[in-house]
Amino acid sequence: MPGKNRDSKQWDRQIEQPQEEELRLQKRHAEHGAWLFLLAVLLLVAGIRYHLLNVPMERDEGEYAYGAQLMLQGLLPYEHLYSMKLPGIYGAYALVLSIFGQTHTGVHAGLLLINAITSILIFLLARRLINPLTGLAAAGSFAVLSVSPSVQGVFANAEHFVIVPAVAGFLILLIALEKRRWWLFFAAGLLLGLGFVIKQHGFAFILAGIVIFFTQYPGGRPFSWKPLGWHALALCSGILLPYAVVCIIFLASGSFAQFWFWTFKYPRAYISELSFKDGLYNFLNNFGLILRDSWPLWFLAYIGLRPPIWNKDERKSRTLLLILSLFSALRRISWKDVAVMGNLA
């Protein structure tokens, strides 16, 4: 009998091994297929954006390009340019102009590249959260929706630059929660903080990152507070570092007073003119316009959300999706109507 049991187990292993190998091959093929399909979508969107390279600059693009030119000449903002935006957007534009040229087509060529990078990051994030097919759907939908005139997708507004480090920060944060390495938490915080110094509305993504950290941090038995504390410190240090560097630069240049006035005092007075209620109303109105122009994709997104919301096995993905959706909506209200940032300030 013992010999028969050993033979039976060996036979079972021989059957399971080909099945496992077949599953691995199927996953690999699905992964390759998702990447190829994503590449096709990105090429399609890039083709559309290529034909829009010569579109004249929008108001904000002109401001950012002018600030970038000043930086390339060695001049800091807020001395020769008065704006509520934090200086990160001018630095991002300076990088784009130095690579693609100081023209409106150069700005839009940079946007084409930024949009493609963001789409790939969204694919990687959604793939880690759920699976490659979901990543493909998320990245493809973003690439298509981000060209829509209803979100001013043709123009290189600051939002395009904010979400690159934000999405990258979320991706690294998920990896950090799995690997539990302090430098990964620091890198995630650094990227989220970088999004904030590009535009203040990136603060919503910082809040999302902090909520994700404390709700998804892996527990153990017995639970130890020491790793949690060190990892939280690494995350927060990364978040604060970009803004601290900006403050040090302006302190050293002797223009911190101008920087503080234009990026904190003036915006605080400006946004206090609009209440949260009015901001929420405007958000719903603007979202209705966006929904009207691309309702089929939103309907498909709703269908795709049902499994992770109702499936108990997808509880972790459900929580993360809800957090990201909530704080993305918060950022959307603050972007279009600047009401939330007023209440926060």
From TrEMBL:
Any GO BP: lipopolysaccharide biosynthetic process
Keywords noted in UniProt: Cell membrane, Glycosyltransferase, Membrane, Transferase, Transmembrane, Transmembrane helix
Annotated membrane topology: Multi-pass membrane protein
Cellular location(s): Cell membrane
Gene Ontology molecular-function annotations: pentosyltransferase activity
GO cellular component: plasma membrane
Chief place of localization: membrane
Ranges annotated as spanning the membrane: 34-52, 107-126, 133-155, 161-177, 204-220, 232-263
Glycosyltransferase RgtA/B/C/D-like domain location: 93-236
Pfam families attached to this UniProt entry: PMT_2
Protein name listed in UniProt: Glycosyltransferase RgtA/B/C/D-like domain-containing protein
